[in-house]
Write a structure and sequence with these properties.
The chain has strands at residues 14-18, 22-24, 29-33, 39-41, 52-57, 67-70, 83-85, 91-97, 101-104. The protein has one domain (14-104): Sandwich (Jelly Rolls). With 106 residues, it is mainly beta.
């Protein structure tokens, strides 16, 4: 089991406010992007199946000022490409799989 927060409380909830232009995510982050044009770099070490990261366009500006999710060596949706969030107010939840890389579940 990964370190995603559950109703049993097996993992603590971590919230990060991202107001800068770049941020290195850690497992279980809930990232609120409060400015456009940001790059969020995913972790690539010590990952477990089920580890989760959530990214939200809190600024409602992703369509005009994209958020880049840098894959940092792992695939996203089975592709060796970074993810671009370009929909205003979007929330993306990524779950890690040792065999598939980061998978978008929302």
């Amino acid at each position: 089991m990964g370190r995603y927060i559950t109703i049993t409380g097996t993992a603590g909830s971590v919230t990060r406010i991202n107001a800068g232009t770049a941020y290195n995510a850690v497992v279980n982050d809930r990232i609120l992007c409060t400015a456009g044009g940001q790059t969020i770099t995913l972790p690539n070490a010590g990952l477990l199946d089920g580890d989760t990261i959530m990214i939200t366009d809190a600024a409602n500006t992703a369509a005009s000022s994209n958020i880049t999710v840098a894959r940092n060596g792992n695939n996203i949706q089975r592709l060796a490409e970074d993810l671009t969030i370009n929909v205003n107010a979007a929330t993306v939840v990524l779950v890690y799989s040792a065999t598939l890389g980061w998978i978008i579940i929302k």
